[in-house]
Amino acid sequence: MTATRPLPTPTRMTATNRLSAAGRMLLAEINKLLTLPSLRTTFLLTWAVTLLLRLVDLPGSILVHTQAGFLIFGVLAASHEHDRGSQINSTLLAMPRRLPLAATKALALTLVTTPLALLVTLTAAEPTGSGPGAQAGAQAGAQAGAQAGAGIEAQAGIGAGAGAGAFHLAVDGAAHNAGYLILATLAASGAGMLLRNDVGAAGVALTAYLLVAPLARARLPAIETWLPEAPQPSLAAAVWTLTALSVAAAAFHHRDA
Amino acid sequence: MIAIDHLSRPGRLHDVSFEARPGRVTGFLGPNGAGKTSTLRVLLGLDRARDGTALVAGRRYADWPRPLTVVGALLDGSGAHRARSARAHLRWMAASNGLPRSRVDEVLDLVGLSAEAGKRAGRFSLGMSRRLGLAAALLGDPPVLILDEPVNGLDPSGIRWMREFLRSSAGEGRTVLLSSHLMGELAGVADDVVIIDRGRVVASGTVGEVTAGHPTLEDAFLALTAGGTTW
Amino acid sequence: MVSLVHAELRKLLGLPTAWIGLVVGLVAAPALAVLNAPAARRAVADGLIRDPSDLGFQDLGIGLLGAMILGVVAVSSEFTPTGDDTPGARQLTATLLAAPRRTRLLAAKAIALSLVVAAQGLVTAVATLALTERMHGALVPPPQPGRVLAAVLYWTLLGLLAWSITLLARNGMITLAVLIVNSTVVSLSYLLTKVTPWAAYLPDIVGAHMFLRGMDVPVEIPPVTAGLVMTAWVAALIAVATLTFHRRDA
């Protein structure tokens, strides 16, 4: 028999080499998302439209409309694996354990989406109104006002407190709404992973979030609490996301690549 | 090094068993649609078999913690998303298995794609796509190479390069398994041959053993797969 | 030309996604009419509906999703790559080899799409209105044939709008996003009319004046004007899309 190469071969030690398996997967998946031009374009368009609608002072919530950009973002993040070129083969050759891979994909998408969602919600500058986050924000603002008011110049203190309160409210509302956008993005990625086709998955995700959910909320009050409502994060929105991701991960695990 | 045991997949594979050994080039031959790609995809954990096992160095592919350092695989297409540059594609693959970035430039150089590394994979010609696929397979400097129709889409100089590459890889002690439906290509490069037809292994052994009684490997192949799938 | 239209019809109806569009368009509006019935009855009784004759017509809106999907897939299927091993191969390459005169080809495509979408619109409108009449009886005045035809025209023009935007953008995702955002309960176009009255002349919202009477917009637009404005929009978009289709490489 000929000389056998020792197994496993590489002897190089590198920074990434010392990462755990989970860390390596996460790094690779984030890398993939950051080098995909269509995701960059989708985000920039979404941000630009949000800014435009803010500038024309659109009545009502802007995010209700621009969540469409995040839904497409989520779909593309997942479905691009199945575009021509069969990148999915490379992905599974490099990271063959499918359930950990699906979980890592969701985590990577969350990490990449979070700053983008915050940027868009801050641009839209919508307070959540009745949301618990907004209430907490208002309370914090009032407290800050009261504390400042105890100072030498009570009048100015109250003014500053109100300003701080408004600022708190805006940031808090943005963070709150960003939570919704992240959940929607993740659910759309579930649709993309399940359907493996970008236009088809986008059609399903957009129809579900922009047409079916609001229509059903208006017409069927009995199931209202089980439907997500943009741009408020809710238990329902989280349940939709978890369901979409679980179904997609199960299909991803079971079927042939 | 590669051990396929009683692999079955409804309608595709029927009790397929064979081995590929280190330091040798094993040719996996069969008409189009005979089950070559299907077998390789099961071996690589991409598709599932109903019965049987397919092991690389004693483990299922998916059980290797850093599979790219054990097996290099070339399937159809480049395996890269068309909008990503060749370098970006190889970089995420390297990161996924903890391989250094410098290795990306090494393999690009090895397959002669250094000048085009910044180009989007979708703009590559067929031959360049195959080279990119091969670069990905070589990232982890793996002791096992699994190649599905490696000469498809290569020009004559590319085919010669591939043949020499396969021989030298085996010479370094690597296990090389490649599928093909082109006899001429295989006869010159393979040490061992496995012939599959309609999902069943119909012959296996060294080139000499399988050819015995026929003028050439091609004649043996045609005789063994007579009446098989049209191609 | 007839054979070209015939070929394009076969191609369109051979797409699985086109059938999704067809079925969605046919089923959604009648389903909504049924779902909406109790709320609509209350709204009419409370005098919340400006013009009860709008009732069945309003429910048609959701079925337009089907027309849009048809418009999008009729184009996007041509630009979808056909396989792994053939870089740059698209169905369009084969299409252009079979029919190299691009303007005629586009005309055939537009006619084929219009035929399918108009038939879908007609069936959906008749079914939805019949259902509305069955459920509400005398509460809703019987629909005038002119308004039904106007609704079908709107339906067809919207399909062509989706088609021309996709042809321009060479990407079905953008069209889908824009049009679905505008099909929502409170559409973006409608909200923009609150910002500027000119938004009432955006193609999707102006066309609705053809068959809806009680629309809550700042400007009153007569049905014929509405039809002309929407047709002009679609014609302009198709003209630009045709020009760019000529200039670009396949």
From TrEMBL, chain A:
Domain of life: Bacteria
Protein name: ABC-2 type transport system permease protein
Source organism: Actinoplanes lutulentus
UniProtKB/TrEMBL annotation, chain B:
Keyword presence, Transport: yes
Domain of life: Bacteria
Transferase found in the keyword field: no
SUPFAM superfamilies from the UniProt entry: P-loop containing nucleoside triphosphate hydrolases
Stretches assigned to the ABC transporter domain: 2-223
InterPro entries: AAA+_ATPase, ABC_transporter-like_ATP-bd, ABC_transporter-like_CS, P-loop_NTPase
Swiss-Prot/TrEMBL keywords: ATP-binding, Nucleotide-binding, Transport
GO molecular function terms attached to this record: ATP binding; ATP hydrolysis activity
PANTHER family (UniProt xref): ABC TRANSPORTER, ATP-BINDING PROTEIN
Family recorded in the similarity comment: Belongs to the ABC transporter superfamily.
Name listed for the protein in its UniProt record: ABC-2 type transport system ATP-binding protein
Organism: Actinoplanes lutulentus
From TrEMBL, chain C:
Organism field: Actinoplanes lutulentus
Keywords: Membrane, Transmembrane, Transmembrane helix
Domain of life: Bacteria
Keyword match Membrane: yes
Keyword check for Manganese: no
Transmembrane segments: 12-35, 55-75, 110-131, 151-169, 176-201, 221-245
Protein name according to UniProt: ABC-2 type transport system permease protein
